[in-house]
Amino acid sequence: MNIQQFCRKRVCPAVEVVLKGFQNWGIGVFPATPILAVAFFISLGFAPPIFGASDKEPAPSYPSVEIPPEYQDKQMPKGWRTDSKVLTAGEAIYEGSANPDVNCAGCHGIDGKPTRKGKGAPDLSDPQVAQKSDALWFWEISEGKRRTKMRGHVKHLTEEQRWQVIAYMRTFAQ
Ligand code: HEC
């Protein structure tokens, strides 16, 4: 929305409500105005982010996201990261040889670098991407990411298989 719409939709009703409030306390419109003016100037400090004109540092390219509570405590089984059987199983899932309906490499690339089909996917061999937590990845692989090509895989992959593929994905940044 532009500033005019913002003022009409949000500010005018808000000013009305506040003025009514002052009236209820027995404060007339006239003394209320300077109070409102001060409040307005204070609020200006908060306005730029609303209008997208913030001069703050650009957000980090990999902002942290809130993991839903049911996934926060998910943990890779002990020792799986280096277990060659786990890694082989993970590789087969990732590359689509375990189940042709699940082919992570088709988008994420055989080497963890996104393919054309997977445009927008993060480079899994980038150490910064690799810092993301297992729980976060487990959640994203399970539920997918809304409004992206990344689908949820709860139906196609058991919990074990999801951990196997994560263990394998961790090898790209090693
Ligand atoms: C159709 C393409 C496609 C397929 C197939 C696919 N992904 Fe993704 N994946 C994406 C895209 C695009 C993103 C980035 C989504 C976004 O915008 O945040 C993503 C994001 C992810 C992320 C989050 C990475 C991060 O750090 O933010 C993980 C983990 C992931 N995919 C794992 C997998 C696994 C495991 C498979 C296979 C079971 C898979 N993906 C299959 C396209 C795909």
Main attributes of the structure:
Cytochrome Bc1 Complex, Chain D, domain 2; 50% helix; 0% strand; binds heme C
Mean pLDDT: 86
Question: What is the CATH first-level class name of the largest domain?
Answer: Mainly Alpha
Q: Could you list the spans in which at least 5 consecutive residues all have pLDDT below 50?
A: none
Task: Give the count of helical stretches.
Answer: 9
- In terms of DSSP E residues, the strand content is under 5%
Would you give the CATH topology of the largest domain? Cytochrome Bc1 Complex, Chain D, domain 2
What's the alpha carbon Rg, rounded to whole Å?
25 Å
Structural class from helices and strands?
A: mainly alpha
Order of helices and strands: HHHHHHHHH
Shape: elongated
The biggest beta sheet reads: none
Identify every distinct bound molecule in the structure, by name, code or SMILES: heme C
